[in-house]
Description:
Elements: H1 21-28, E1 32-36, E2 39-42, H2 44-63, E3 67-68, E4 74-76, H3 77-83, E5 94-97, E6 103-106, H4 111-121, E7 130-139, E8 154-164, H5 167-187, E9 192-196, E10 206-213, E11 219-224, H6 243-251, E12 254-256, E13 272-287, H7 291-294, E14 297-299, E15 305-307, E16 309-316, H8 317-327, E17 329-330, E18 333-334, E19 345-349, H9 357-370, E20 375-378, H10 384-394, E21 398-402, H11 404-409, E22 412-416, E23 422-425, H12 427-438
Parallel strand pairs: 3-7, 19-20, 19-21
Antiparallel strand pairs: 1-2, 4-6, 5-6, 7-8, 8-16, 9-10, 10-13, 11-12, 11-13, 13-16, 14-15, 17-18, 21-22, 22-23
Helix pairs in contact: 1-8, 2-5, 2-8, 9-12
Amino acid sequence: MRLSQYFLPVLKETPKEAQIASHRLMLRAGMIQQSSAGIYSWLPLGKKVLDRIAQIVREEQNRAGAIEIMMPTIQPAELWQESGRYDDYGAEMLRITDRHERDMLYGPTNEEQVTDIFRAHVRSYKALPLNLYHIQWKFRDEVRPRFGIMRGREFLMKDAYSFDLDAEAARRAYNRMFVSYLKTFARMGLTAIPMEADTGPIGGDMSHEFIILAETGESGVYFHKDWLDTDLVTSVDYAEDLQPVVDKFTSLYARADEKHDPGNCPVAADDLMSLRGIEVGHIFYFGEKYSEPMGASVAGPDGRNVPVHMGSYGIGVSRLVGGIIEASHDDKGIIWPRAVAPFDVAVVNLKPDDDACDPCAEDLYAKLVAAGGDPLLDDRDERPGAKLASIDLIGIPWQIVVGPRGMASGVVEVKNRATGETAEVSPESALNMVMDGAA
Length: 439
């Protein structure tokens, strides 16, 4: 993509309403624009990151055996009345009446909707286990939306729902999602620590939230210091018993502040760390909470109808954009992990129309495209300082800077955005460096 032809409305000044780093940087980098309180338009750069995160989530859900569907944003109220949650959910639910005086709602979650799909089509235990997921926009009418997309009213979420014959099978489904989440967040360059959690309005008796560490996190977290050196990338066979893997990652102490009891903490004071964290995923097992009142049952091996056991599994896809920025930025701007970066490398032509700079920058850009990369060519007619500042701001992992001084010596400057390290090398060596680093 040529930056001269791209829509990237970067801001020089920090908007006054932005209180945390991710909100400031997303506005300044031209990723989002506020539409109304807690609701944002996603501009091209932000949409690209959002799509890359969603694709990683999708790939890992598919590998864990979940099947993608798409459910509506607007749901009929009677489904929630069947489950008993319509009146209990609270003011966060946006209730709507359509032109035929039917009560509807903008879905904050989809347990009822997916249970209705299941009960309409599945009759026998032979169709189990089943896990259905979608990536869809949700709405919760926060009383005080703040922190940009981190605590907005409209958000993109992956939610999956498992259906099993009994509690034992449901636990296996829960474990698959638990491991899938570890793999998903690790692919994004994040350490997401699983912590026992309250079930809240979803309900149930087993729940874990996945929290990434960030100074501006919304909640305090307490954990054994060994978590900082724990490798969360795990190679698994989902057909095997995953309980040992889950046991491994739940045996090391980690609690959010509401679950941490200082008087009974099993970790020695020297080994206990206390930081801030951001929740990016939450999984629940709730048994027959929805299947029983909504009549979602199957014929078991003995021919007797039994309610299925269910679980739900959420990942805040749009929230992850902000969470990653909170965990990975500096005073110059965003530092994207390679897997979710909007572009692989930025080729910065410091002097467009120069007889040496132009052909070199164009050749580098063409070769990166031909090699299957996704480069950004900064071919704008701007001051060199402004160009370099904006490229640092948007956080592309690698930069190749082409300028008249370097061209006089036949070299370009390669910069690693994360480390800040630079090197002057030949254009060919620059290509090899960034392609190896992008692999």
